[in-house]
Amino acid sequence: MANQAADRPRVGVYPGSFDPPTNGHLDIIRRATRVVNKLIVGVAVNPSKDALFTIGERVKIVEQEIAAIDHGLSGRVEVRAFEGLLMHYVRDVGATIIIRGLRAVTDFDYEFQMTGMNARLDPEIETVFLMASESHQFISSRMVKEIGVLGGNITSFVSAAVAKSLTARIAERQSSK
Length: 177
Ligand code: ADP
Prior knowledge:
Layout: H1 4-7, E1 11-16, H2 23-35, E2 38-44, H3 55-69, E3 77-82, H4 86-92, E4 97-102, H5 105-121, E5 126-131, H6 141-149, H7 160-175
Parallel strand pairs: 1-2, 1-4, 2-3, 4-5
The structure holds adenosine-5'-diphosphate.
The site of adenosine-5'-diphosphate has 17 residues, from helix 2 and strand 4.
């Protein structure tokens, strides 16, 4: 008997805050396109997190970053804002795979719990973990923002365009205090 699931194009969702997207995120996006036929980068609205960039800005920045790393990827990768329960969103867009990036052991506990709970919510959806290359594994958006606020050099963690936007936004915030 033919395996119908194997014949369908594999659609994956890579969810996150992307505030801002780092070289680690871009590395995971590139790798994810080797695993799925179509990737939806789901930028979480996440009102509980105090984001530096608005949801509209984050979607636009991720789109620009993807176009900058590889024009060929743009056709297979879509960037969309999403709100609410991830599992509902994944179903709504017709995806069957969730992509998550794994950094060090610190990510593991949280991801382990979330994957277990998500599997209960919808056992037909698989979570696939990918690791960024060694040089990008330790990067986190939170640390990049912290270093940026303290005036440190962030150019090896994010693209030149993101570094520029981030520096400008931090300056804006600091001058309005
Ligand atoms: P969160 O807000 O949940 O931390 P992020 O937007 O920072 O989410 O990241 C989204 C996903 O990308 C998560 O699975 C996170 O583990 C992964 N990720 C972020 N940075 C890296 C990195 N440097 N290497 C590998 N995975 C990463």
